[in-house]
């Protein structure tokens, strides 16, 4: 007979908030479960920084705010809280918030091997429930690739891969025009390289 599986401890929202105040590490919260967030690599940190600096410059003088990974996001009040790598919000309440955003218009997540499937799947499905969200960016740290998801006017999410150095993240309403080369500048991440195998030569027999 197998051993009984140990049940994961469940937290109230109040217990989770208390944990975040006391702990040096950050945690995500979903339906009473708490998940410790792993530390970021250097390239992860640099990519997030490139987005943040570019967004801050683009939004200067506009009623919008860009923040980095230390700011919490309430995906669903009392149910789901995360820490995206970068967010932009133009919500009035978020402009005054000290700890938590509630209505971002754009979210950036830098992918890592341990979180890529979660960021593309379950987390994205949760983020889609945010009425304010219009742009979701998934950023590779192994090669030049930005997966750009946009909520169109009909509510359907479109997908645009940005791969070439001149491919641009162009969002006029946020004054953003950012190329892939600028996103990956100084990160040490190499462009995606496709190596073509030489065509096999036909070696026929002489008659």
Low-confidence stretches: 1-6
Elements, N to C (H/E): HEEHEEEEHEEHHEEEEEH
Assigned CATH architecture of the domain at 41-183:
Alpha-Beta Complex
Query: How many helices does DSSP assign?
Result: 6
Describe what this molecule looks like in 3D.
The protein has a domain at 41-183: tt1808, chain A, CATH 3.90.1570. It is 23% helix and 28% strand. It is built from six helices and 13 strands. A six-stranded mixed beta sheet has the order 3-6-8-9-10-11, with helices on one face. A five-stranded mixed beta sheet has the order 2-1-5-4-7, covered by helices on one side. A two-stranded antiparallel sheet has the order 12-13. A hairpin with a 4-residue loop joins strand 12 (168-171) and strand 13. The longest helix has 17 residues, at 42-58.
